[in-house]
Structure formats: C-alpha cells, structure tokens
Amino acid sequence: MKVVALVSGGKDSCYVMMKCIQYGHEIVALANLLPVDDSVDELDSYMYQTVGHQIIVSYAECMNVPLFRRRIRGSSRIYACRHQKLSYQMTPDDEVEDMFVLLSEVKKQIPSITAVSSGAIASDYQRLRVESICSRLGLVSLAFLWKQDQTSLLQEMINPTNGIKAILVKVAAIGLDPSKHLGKDLAFMEPHLLKLKELYGSNVCGEGGEYETLTLDCSLFTRARIVLDEFEVKLHSPDSIAPVGVLHPTVFHLEKKGNADSSSLEEEPGLVFEVQGDGPNPPESTRQLDNGIADVVQHTRTRVNLSKTGKDNTFSICCWLEDSSTAGLKEDLETVLTEIESQLSKHGVSWQNVLYIHLYISDMSEFSVANETYVKFITQEKCPFGVPSRSTIELPLVQAGLGKAYVEVLVANDHSKRVLHVQSISSWAPSCIGPYSQATLHKGVLHMAGQLGLDPPTMSLRNEGAVAELNQALTNSEAIAEAFRCSITSSAILFVVFCSERTQQSERNQLHEKFVSFLDLAKSSQRVSNVIDPIFLYILVPDLPKSALVEVKPVLYVEEDSEDDDETRKDQLGEGDFSCWGYKPEKWHQDCLQTRVIDGKICVNVLSISAEVMKKLDEPSGDEEQPLKRVSRFCVYLLDKTLSENLFSWQDTTSLRIHFSTSLGVSVERLSVIFETAFEVLNEMSLGVISNGLKEPIFSLVPVLGAGNSSASLDNIITCELFSLRS
C-alpha cells in the first residue's frame, strides 16, 4: 500500500515507517501537526507530540518525500475529558479534526494513498482517534508497534542496523533530570531507562509520558541527517522528584549523505505544503433504508422465522428465512437484519446493546456482498459503547431448505459491556477493519470473534496447512485474551472450532491433538492457578472467510469477585425427579454430555448425539420420525436434568444452538416442530416456566456438515450447545 506517515519527530513515528517498508508498503508522504505559534514548544494536547516541531520541516528534504503540515486549531478539552475510553465521534473544534483536515488534503493531492502509519504503542486514546479518522477517509491504519514489548522495541530502535539516532527533548518522570538528560542520545540513555523501569515501573519507551524524543537520523534519511548545533533547556516544572523540562532547538543544519548535492539541502517549497481550511460539519442523520430495501423486506417477510431465549437481561435472537430460490444473499440478509432490528426495538434495545453476532451465509464467495449489507445496519455511530464481535461462517443453508442468510445476535439490556476494537493493522493480532470487534466482555464472559490463522502484520493466512492455521489462530486468541488480563490456557470455558470441508482428513485427525499440545505448552510456561478445563466442539462447514481451513471461536471466563464457589455448590446440587421422561439414568447418558459450571454463575453444556446413540434411543415403531422424536425428548430431558442438578433453570439460558447434520435429510421446518413438541412436554411438566409467554422457540437450528468433540470424529447427527448465565 502507498502510505502517508504521521510524524511527530519522535522515535516511534520513524520506526513504524521502517516497519511499513519491511512489510512491503511504500512511504509516499509525511503529515505533521504543529502549534499555531512557532515559538511554542508544547501544547496541552492528548493527541500530539509537538516538542521539536521546528526541525520537522527538514524531514521532507532528508527523505525526499513531500511533507504536509497543519497548525493545530482545535482544543483537546472539548471531547477528551468526557470520552477518553470511548470511540471517537466527530466533534467540531476538537484537535482531532485538524488531523482529518490534514489527511483529507493529503488524500486529495495524492489519491493513490490508501493507508496511514502512526507510532502508537499503548495509547488506546490516540489509536482510536487515528482509526476513526482513517475510517471516515476510507484509509487503513497501520500501527505495527501496537502492544509490542517496550524493552524489545527500544533495543530494536537503537540497533545500528536501523540507525535511529534520537535525542531526549522532554523529560517528566522520576529519575530523569532536564539539566542532565535533555539532548542525550537514546542509545546512551537505554541502560538508565531500563534501570528506571526496574526501580519505578517506568515505561522504557516513554508511553507513560516519561520522556519524548526527536529523531535526527535514521536509515530512512537517505539524503541527509540533521545536526543540532544549539538548544535551550526550558524548565516547565521544578518539582524536586519529577521535574519537567523541554529542549528548544535554536540552531541546526543538514549534513548530506552519500551523493546528495549539498547545495540542495535547504528547505524546498516543492516538498513542504501548509494545509489550511476549516474542519468538517457534523453528519446530518442516521442510516435510512436504501431505495428498494423496504419493498424487498415486505415481499419476503412471510418467510421470516424467529427464535428467542427467555432470559430478560441477556438473550439471543435468531432470524432465518424459508427457502428463497429467487432472492439473492443481499436481499435475504437485508430482510433478516431488518427483522432483527425490529425485534431489538420491540424489546427496548438496539444495535448498541448487541454483544455478539453470528453471521451465517450460504456462499462465502459472496462475503463482500454480505459485508457491504452488514455495514448498512451495524455502524460505529449506532454503537457508542463499542461494536459487537462477530463470527462469519458458510453453512449449508440452501441444502437445509433455508434462505441465503441466517443471523443470531446476543443481546444485553445494559451498557456494561467492554469492547476491544483495534482497526489498525499491527503485529499484535489481526485487525478488525469495520464495525465488528475482536472481543466483548460482559458479566465475566469474554466473547471472542472467530479467529483465523492470519499473520497480523500482513493479514495473510498461514499457507502451511490447517495445523499451522490453528497454531496462528490460537496465538492471535491469546494476544486478545491478554488484553483482558486472562489467558486461553486457563480461562477458556468453550472452544468452538469450525473446520472447512476442504481440510484434508489426515490434517483434521491431528487438529485436536495439536490444539491440546498448544494449550499444554503454554500452560507449562505460565504459573497459573484455577485452570478451567474447557469444552471442545468441532463443527464441519463448507467454507470459511479467506478460504481458511480453520476458525477458532473461544469463550472465556474473566474472574470477578464471587460469594459462591463450586465447592459450596456441590453440597447444593438439585435432586429433582425426572422419571416422568421415561429414562433410567445410565452411564452412557453422561458420556454424551460435556458440562462446565463456573463459580455458580455460568453453566455450559454440549450434548452430542451420534448415530450410535440414536440407535440406543430407538424403539420399534411405524413412524419414520420416531427416532428423531426420541432424540429430541432425550436432549431436552438430559439438558433439563443437568441444569436442575447444577441449580440453573431454563430462565438462565442465553443461547441454545441445535447443530444438526444435513445428512439427516430432514427439513428445518420439520425438525423445529419435533423439538418444539419436546419443549412443550417440558413446559407442561414445569407449569409453563419454559415458555415464559414467548411465542418463538428458545432454540435455533443450525445446519452443519458434521460435528463432534474431536476433530477426528465429526459424526454427530445432533449437537446441542447450551449456554446459561445466572445474574
């Protein structure tokens, strides 16, 4: 990609340019924001480093790249004080809008630019605002230093190979003295910075505001280096413990490199551009349905089917269509999303309350069509508390007699969710460019987006096969978990692993073993207690995004204070009388079921019915559907029994997916009736507690090619995935 680099003069903005080039991108322009008054060294800004801005004009000549500059007219106080933890929204007269004007002009002058680089390492505040501007301009944010270990980064920067010669131009931390350390070379300061980290927990790269730098030379400066001849030290705060001071450059010159013509090493007007203009006006309105969508929705509404769980504060809504041979994916998805939007409104919530979205489509080759339709409904503007996390899977929908789109949303009726949404391409984890996030935490449950085996900085799939993809997907998952101070090795409750049918059987046979080995190896390198033994569910599907072979969807528990624990609950297990179902408890019943109960708050069940189990349940009958009727009753019986024994009820259900193999040859409509009948029996036994006045079923039927507890054996015909949450 052709990149415009945001440069402050600091080491980070220079080093990220080197990383861009390392990953095959091209720096074609520089962009810098500076104070209105040239004599001012530092602004009271949350966003921009301005110390040393007098020298930045020379970067254009040193790199032989055009430099676009804009003077900062906006304030940092308007928006920041109230919204430091939230995604930025366009705010007139905010200093962030100066960046928008600056980059808008760069894009206008150089239309081939598609990306913006920034040196963000740990500041969510800065990263989110750069990403917001990039989103508005249709540019990709590149932040290759994001979440990298600061000690390693510092060592990389001062490595002679990279040639970064930077000096300290501001100090503001214990152990740093303006009179001693300003103007000192970063490489010279490294041992002292490492010592301060050890003594006081300081950030060695200055991410806590401990210090700022000015780069005078690096490998990017092909024509010249900057020589600082004279400077003044200005003391801003004489604090005896952590004095604050800045370096004010007064005299400097350029020193040519190689064959550069020394006579040309002056400021060239042709390389430096001052960007004027006012900030943009606020957007006028929210999304309206595109022309024609309303008609399509009205025409297809008769084919809409819904399900909803009965829990009041956290629940799932599913929407799918009956067979739509004449409609395309776009029309079907518009209908489904419109109906879900209507259902959300009916229950007093909106898209901002959605935690997670399962997006199922009939043909992954139309992923771009699905995405274009999706972003018409779910936008960052509609989700001020963070956009939902998402998993996108191709399912045999048409084969199962359904339409071409199927959506399930997990909803909370509060605003307590915590969302991690990194749109920048980095070396940390795969970016989520658009209105879907890496993970959402709500009430102790971390719902992670489906993870592919993508190499984060290149966003390319590992090409060594399914096992390599799995390892990379797990590495990505661990990086995301660490952002929430947990680990997939100790906190995972459930791993759902989608396997493409294109995966070779020989590789599929290895996946579970390699998965467990990855977790065991990671555990051995960590000292953790209270390790959760996760449930594994493997699902065979026709295809995955980017033609991936594997997609991992982890669900984690992020521990909170609990007044109850598993040991206490063992003495409180419900007894219950389930003889009315006609089943005598047998050992093989429990062999079908995986159950995890966490702190008395979460109960996860995965019930697997194979052809062998189906035979055990069968009784001689002239009814062709009798085997499935017996299976449905058995599933409901065993799930009900397990919930009761663990002091949970159906009212605690947040989601119930019934994955069924298309090899059954039964229509979704018919299978739905069979399971609804089983739940009606349960409802009669429980005196109406299950229905709770709901008209829709509480379960969703999900057609798959196969499923199982191991990747080597995906021969389940029915798999129930039940998630319950007490609150």
TrEMBL record:
NCBIfam families: MJ0570_dom. Residues 1-236 form the Diphthamide synthase domain. GO terms for molecular function: diphthine-ammonia ligase activity. It catalyses: diphthine-[translation elongation factor 2] + NH4(+) + ATP = diphthamide-[translation elongation factor 2] + AMP + diphosphate + H(+). Pfam families: Diphthami_syn_2, Ribonuc_L-PSP. SUPFAM superfamilies: Adenine nucleotide alpha hydrolases-like, YjgF-like. GO terms for biological process: protein histidyl modification to diphthamide. Its EC number is 6.3.1.14. CDD domains: AANH_PF0828-like, eu_AANH_C_1, eu_AANH_C_2. This is Diphthine--ammonia ligase.
